[in-house]
Amino acid sequence: MDISVVGAGHVGLVTGACFADLGNQVVVTDHDKDKIALLKRGKTPFYEPGLEELVRRGIAQKRLRFTTSMKEAVEHGLVIFISVWTPQRPNGEADLTAVENVSRQIAQALRAYRVIVEKSTVPVETGEWVKRTMSLSVRRRVPFDVASNPEFLREGQAVQDFMNPDRIVLGVESKRAKDLLLELYKPLKAPIVVTDVKSAELIKHASNSFLAMKISFINAIAQLCDQVGADITKVAEGMGLDTRIGRAFLDAGVGWGGSCFPKDVWAFIRIADKLGYDFQLLKAVAQVNVQQRQLFVKRIAQILWNLNNKTIGVLGLAFKPNTDDLRSAPSIDIIRMLQEEGAKVRTFDPKAMEQANGLFTDVTFCKDVYEAARGADCLVIVTEWNEFKELDFVRLKKLMRQPCIIDGRNIYDPEALRRLGFRYVGIGRGHPTTYLGLPKGSPSPHGEKSS
Ligand SMILES: NC(=O)c1ccc[n+]([C@@H]2O[C@H](COP(=O)([O-])OP(=O)(O)OC[C@H]3O[C@@H](n4cnc5c(N)ncnc54)[C@H](O)[C@@H]3O)[C@@H](O)[C@H]2O)c1
């Protein structure tokens, strides 16, 4: 099938490259000329395992093309995916300017029937706005359908997720659009939920918010574990074996971040507000997440007595492993709070160093874990990269000023590290926190604003 994708970002590029690999003819367009020039040379603008190979293969087999011309994209694709950004406004709402602009541009270039598919994450009723915007701009009476096909891929395993989804959600309003999308997705052999556009839009926001809720829930339980000396990893195991609950997303840590959860949770709260529903549950989910970072820094301060002039080695900057994405990463707030308390920060991330340059001031970027540990009063784990799991702890101990590890992702065995002579503190593993007073520079209630 001939398809086009508007927006060559984490979702659009994966969508385009994967559909090309499945045998479709794909045109990907973006307004960023540099990005398109880079992609034409077979290079990807961000790190995502397996994606560059897929892009190169698509180009070599002449199934994948890149252009800055919307006209070319609209002429080519019978199905046109909108996968542009939908960032967070300062008040938490989703900024749909790009979706609106692209809808208008598509309508102006429309000469024959097309299915316009929202793949960007958007608040419920956006499909209606897209349809209305397009109807105002479409030159002749060209027929078109608007559909919703939310994306659930996870950065760091996006290609794998796209090719092997748990489910595909199709929100459609006509048989024609439904049949085309069913045909397009048939090779993936995944369960498909066919519904109306509004329900599809809600499925995406509800799913992300539910997952964020699970993480905030376990983080709240972790605080209790610390106070009473219980072990959150065991509590999560015991809860997770209940098939009604499930073990996934019950890992306590420094909280959720990234390009999706923070903005999607707030966009959901705001659209609910607009619709007259006060989504108090989700507000608490967001609040627990902000608090989790504050309490983490407070804990570091308690362990080191005070932070002024202490050197902290921060391991991991990306919001999660296998990506260089720093959007709303917990590391940003954590480092800022540490610095406001007077600490000096040394850091290393396996992939996100380049992206981090310019985002942080007065931070020493190191070439590896051991350099980050040199002279440090403690090492703080912020991202659970696999390569942090197996370290030469004897060497680390010699390099550090104090043998202390504060593990924001619970990747180590506390007993093993204590045997090696480290002071080890995880999350929810029995280290009580004094709750009075929060660190300077604590994030605002909205906490995570998209970068
Ligand atoms: N990143 C994820 O893991 C993920 C997962 C599921 C859904 N989503 C959703 O998908 C959407 C895109 O996210 P992303 O992470 O790919 O964003 P991104 O920032 O990586 O990419 C967005 C792309 O859209 C392009 N763009 C913006 N305005 C444009 C315009 N007017 N014309 C043409 N191109 C334009 C940008 O240049 C950029 O390349 C968002 O709504 C996001 O919430 C993201």
Q: How widely separated are the two ends?
A: 36 Å
General form:
elongated
Question: How is the main sheet built?
Answer: 6 strands, parallel
Helix percent reads: 40-55%
- Structural class determined from secondary elements: alpha/beta
β-strand number: 14
Our estimate of the beta-strand percent is 5-15%
Strand order in the largest sheet: 3-2-1-4-5-6
Average pLDDT over all residues: 94
- Using only CA atoms, what is the Rg? 23 Å
**Poorly predicted ranges (pLDDT <50, ≥5 residues)?**
447-451
Helix tally equals 17
Bound molecules: nicotinamide-adenine-dinucleotide
Structure described in brief:
This protein is α/β, with parallel strands linked by helices and 451 residues long.
Walk me through the structure.
Helix content is 42%, strand content 13%. By secondary structure, the chain is an alpha/beta fold. It has a 6-stranded parallel sheet, sandwiched between helices. Strands 11-10-9-12-13-14 form a 6-stranded parallel sheet. Strands 7-8 form a two-stranded parallel ribbon. Helix 17 (414-419) links the parallel strand 13 and strand 14 (423-425). The longest helix is centred in the middle third of the chain and has 32 residues, at 197-228. It is elongated and about 75 Å long. The relative contact order is 0.10. The protein binds nicotinamide-adenine-dinucleotide. The site of nicotinamide-adenine-dinucleotide has 25 residues, from helix 5.
